[in-house]
Specification:
It is built from ten helices and no strands. By secondary structure, the protein is mainly α. It starts with a helix and ends in an 8-residue tail after the last helix.
Length: about 210
């Protein structure tokens, strides 16, 4: 979502459709969890088991929701440790793939939507929805920080490559309750796709670092 106004409009439309008073969304106090759950359930009727499972928060999401994405220190460490334990590394130990493929993935928003089910091609990373990556790109979201010059800024070090792989695989290992999707842990992208996006960010030849 590109702007707060768009996000609010979407939330209001969903609330009206499900019968949740719009005033509840305009107040500082959040509506009761039971009302939010009812809105979500009403918005996605008739789901099969795979889709229905996506509406149920796992332990990390439950904790992040409970503390409004600001968990206390002990919960912060619990989430971080759990996320780190989910990360799977390539068998050959190589953490970078093709930046050219990574750029295609960054541009693609295909996958994980109703219209993409069943999948007819590979899921994309949709990175530009939240980040600026290449300086030449004129359309990008601002939910996340600009990543232009990312690899150059970090000195293209092996440590930075590993940290980048881990952040894409499960960002909660770096920042619990991050807004970034858990591309590896949730099976959105394959290990090879994650390697390609790492290359987009960390390869000196990538347009990100030009």
């Amino acid at each position: 979502m590109r702007t707060i106004d768009f996000a609010l409009a979407s939330a209001l439309a969903l609330a009206f459709a499900a019968g949740l008073p719009a005033a509840a969304l305009a107040q500082d106090a959040a509506p009761p969890a039971s009302e939010v759950d009812a809105v979500i359930e009403a918005a996605f009727p008739g789901l099969d088991a795979d889709w229905a499972a996506r509406l149920r928060p796992d332990a990390t999401m439950e904790q992040c929701n409970q503390f409004a994405n600001l968990p206390p220190d002990d919960v912060f460490e619990e989430i971080r440790t759990r996320a780190a334990g989910t990360i799977v590394y390539p068998d050959d130990g190589v953490l970078m793939g093709s930046w050219e493929n990574g750029e295609k993935l960054a541009q693609s928003g295909y996958g994980m939507r109703f219209s993409d089910y069943p999948a007819r091609r590979e899921t994309g990373g949709n990175c530009y929805a939240c980040h600026q990556l290449t300086p030449q790109e004129v359309s990008y979201g601002t939910l996340g920080p600009s990543l232009a010059g990312y690899g150059e800024m970090l000195g293209f070090s092996d440590e930075a490559v590993k940290a980048t792989y881990e952040k894409i695989y499960d960002p909660h290992a770096a920042l619990p309750c991050s807004m970034m999707p858990r591309f590896g842990t949730n099976g959105v992208l394959t290990i090879d796709q994650i390697k390609d996006i790492v290359a987009l960010l960390m390869d000196p030849a990538s347009p990100v670092n030009q």
